[in-house]
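Researcher: Next sequence.
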Amino acid sequence: MAEPSAREWLRRLQGGELSARELTRHYMDRIEQADPRLNAVVALEPEVAMAQAAAADRARGRGEERPLLGLPVTIKDSLEVAGMVSTGGSAARAGFRPHHDATAVARLRAAGAVILAKTNCPEYSASYETDNALHGRTNHPLDPERTPGGSSGGEAALAGADATPLGLGTDGGGSIRVPAHYCGVVGLRPTVGRVPDTGSWPATRASGYMDFYCVGPIARSVDDTALVLPVLAGPDGVDPHAVPAPLHDPAGVEVGRLRVGWFTHSPGVPVTEGTVSAVAGAARALAGAGAELVKVEPPWEPNPTALFFAATSADGGLQMREAAAAAGRHHAGFADLVAAAAEHALSAAEWFAVQREIYGLRARVRRLLTEVDALLSPVVAGPAPLHGMPPAGIPREQYAAFRAFDFVHLYAIGGVPAASVPVGVEDGLPVGVQVAGPPFREDVVLAVAGALESA
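Model: Next structure:
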């Protein structure tokens, strides 16, 4: 990691080694250097950011202490930032400036963070690649011919290029974990209900996305992820799924006393050798730290990917069409997704049957997490692919089945916390592993991820 961590920047700010204005200018320069090859930033207002930084310096001068005081942060464009363009990658929201912050953004602001920039995402956050008709395509920080993933691809690309100290994304079916894995950074999907998703677009709760969507951090270290989670956590009285669950400290988890289940395959999914090796190596590292490792077979039936898309297209794509209506200004991938959804509309009885399967699979995932303390698996079946191609060498014509993403869909359906942490390299590209834990035990997930990061 070439740049100091977010926690280290905060130490330097507190010690008077630099000002928030200097740090904000530093990251503006980093973005100016990196973004021409990434195309990750969709909105940056230097005067506004510098005014926030100056206010943070004044607050520190008055002796105020806030957990993120003066730290620049970047925000996925699907999360609303008051007064700042917030498009969600859709021409339907071109120029839209909300009057209120999303709850998670407001909490970052209250903690003293400087809201620096908005980052690119696919239209409607509905793709595992970050490209849209409004802002264009975002590229991988190591290879412009490859995707940084989606839908929080702009955040992960910036973090992978050391151009943001901390980012905020969303994860419905892997949209934090997949880009983090592709770009070699850390991404945390909290437990459903840990962080309110109020102020995110598209609206997800009253839809086939149900309670799948989570707001969470993307950072360059596990410690920085742990730093920001307490700022984000807790109910806001608006999101009906957000609850006041206790938040435990990862420092209190003894990894050497954990029982960790691990697996490397999903039926019918070709997983690359490097990915299998990464998971096996991570398992050995945890065993070397004293943890008990046990091979497990997770509940793959009904297939979580098929179930995820059965839910999200249950209305035949009606909500997507209405929310993103902008004739002739859709990305081709989004248009194909809406067209495909139209063929899978469900009757009320069929929709209730899908919900029963979702809650049944969720129960089986959570039951497995009563038998082990954490689960270790691939994030995706392979590293970052070329633009327009599925990962793991899966033929292009099979992309729309999305089977390479079984591993992230499993935990989205399960509603449990999961993190992607980089542990290796395959063909010169980062490879992460996924760590999942029981509901509301992000401390276990982060402790295991931290042990892997250290190893």
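Model: The CA atoms of residues 73 and 260 lie 33 Å apart. The longest helix spans residues 348-371.
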